[in-house]
Amino acid sequence: MDDFMRRLELSRAFDAQEPVVIDGVSFDLRWDIDKDQWRPVVPIGTYGRQTFRFGPRIVFPWTPPDWVEHWRDNGGYLDAPAGSTIKIALVRPYPLEGSFEALEVEENRECQLVYLWVFTPDGEMKAAEPPLPLFARTATATQIDLGDFDRAYNGLVSRLERLLGCEDLDDRLDKPVPDFPRPSADMPLTYRRAVLTLHEAVHESDEKAYVAFGYLMGRAEAEQQLLDSALRDHRAAKGRKRGTGTRSANSQRKTEPIRELAKSLIKGNAAMSLGACARMVSQRLPDDWPLSRDPDWIKDHIRELFQQREGRVEYRPRPEWVHPPEADGG
Known about the structure:
Blueprint: H1 3-13, E1 20-22, E2 25-28, E3 38-40, H2 49-54, E4 58-59, H3 65-73, E5 78-79, E6 85-95, E7 110-119, E8 125-127, E9 132-136, H4 140-145, H5 149-164, H6 169-173, H7 189-204, H8 207-266, H9 274-284, H10 295-302, E10 306-308, E11 315-317, H11 324-329
Parallel strand pairs: 2-6, 4-5
Antiparallel strand pairs: 1-2, 3-9, 6-7, 7-8, 7-9, 10-11
Helix pairs in contact: 7-8, 8-9, 9-10
């Protein structure tokens, strides 16, 4: 099999619903995972820039000698001669590290790691290293980091297709009258502008319009991230406010007895100061009072019954808490 056909078959093996045999090696990569969404960073058994970073280090009958030498000196490899079978042992999610995880879209927050078994003709079963990472098709930032610009562009188009609820958006836009669903009213404005700019880029083969499309998609994603973050903060603030209100109401109920006691002391005594009232309340609290007896603490909880005298520093009882006949007589 020539190199071109072998690469096509190796790419197909990941999606195949049955084992694919290539130069005597069987690839059985069936697994319950959405393979339309999760794609390998590099097909198993192909060799290029990303293979250096992501492996797995498996030597097949067609592996170039310089790769065998490189892996021999850098971590070792597994032999998979003709008659071997490659199978998936496990797929598990793995978080991706970044500077702004909280603001990152879900697609750029994690990948899937595929752990592989190599079954050799002599009956041995060995685990290949490292696991093969799968990235989301729409993880544009990740694809750009990997230098896979075609896939990054396709990821942007896939994002628009998902928002519009259509497929083959490139083909739909490459017509004199674009054929795609009208954006809904709740589709963010910047995404709608990106659709129109992509139509211009595709229809006119305008490289600058493609640049503008990429800018608009990045801006739209950033706007959505900031909006999501702001909404999360708003919900959290409302939750904190409800919690504070609940705590305040609980505090009011627990300290109500000292205010009732203060009111009884204020009646008929318009001249009583806040400090004196607090000290008297402290002295009259029952022995089993569960809260503080400190007059300064009590002052904070009965202050609402007093008002500051005009031009003076001291506080005196509010008129509504003083017995009216005695207040008038004073």
